[in-house]
Amino acid sequence: MSTTLQAALWMIGAIVAFTTMAIAGRSVSVELDTFEIMLFRSLIGIGIVLGIAAYAGAMRQIRFRKLRLHLVRNICHFTGQNLWFYAITVIPLAQVFALEFTTPIWVLLLSPLILQERLTGMGLVAALIGFVGILIVARPDPGNLSPGLLAAAGCAIFFALSAIFTRKLTRTEGITSILFFLTVTQAVFGLICAGYDGDIALPSGTVLPWVIVISVAGLVAHFCLTKALSIAPASTVMPLDFVRLPAIAVVGMVLYDEPLELLVFVGAALIFLGNYMNIRQAGRVAAN
Known about the structure:
Elements (H helix, E strand, L loop, with lengths): L2 H26 L5 H23 L10 H24 L2 H8 L2 H12 L6 H18 L8 H23 L5 H21 L12 H24 L2 H8 L2 H13 L5 H26 L1
Helix pairs in contact: 1-9, 1-10, 1-11, 2-3, 2-8, 2-9, 3-7, 3-8, 4-7, 4-11, 4-12, 5-6, 5-7, 6-12, 10-12
């Protein structure tokens, strides 16, 4: 089996997992707010991470170093994930996913400020094309700029910050340690934010399976994506990841009667083009 086909199979798993998480997120939103979703998802995630780490003999990777960097990284991820869970309940899923694709563009723009990485002319062109795509997807005007669109755009920025700080952590920390502190700190954040008013809703028997699905699907999605990137270059995996958009658009149409808007696909195509140009440029630089 070729590496491209192997990567494609792993990406199918990631696409299914991301789509499942979005469906589950909408299902639990009828009973739980975003903070409660994050609380219960993280509690389940702690058990999964510790169970797998114990089985794989990776518990020794959990080291209480870089706690400040873990904290900053997980504040960014917690904020982005809450914005994402809110956005999927109030605007079409295709719009959420299209704006989420701008995360690599924000990584490109923010990395020079945080990681002191050089921003190239091609990177600026790629970012400009991506932002044109954002304008087409969001169509920002006073009558159309909803809180859901702002949340979807904002989640991409915080996901980008999370990715940048994750990159810094991977220089010294193992994946088990990163995932452990991710789930633990987000459980704490979720408990504080969900319980500040003294009222935390417990998931009912109907909703609890969906909460478990969210937790498992999130871990599976990122594992499949990481596995695909370990097999094939980003320039191969990136186009495969773009299949998420038409897939979620069809799901939104079938399950929630959401319209298939041509402008969302046009804007998303430009966002994809900007991301792909940046990845190709990075590949050429690495080859030289």
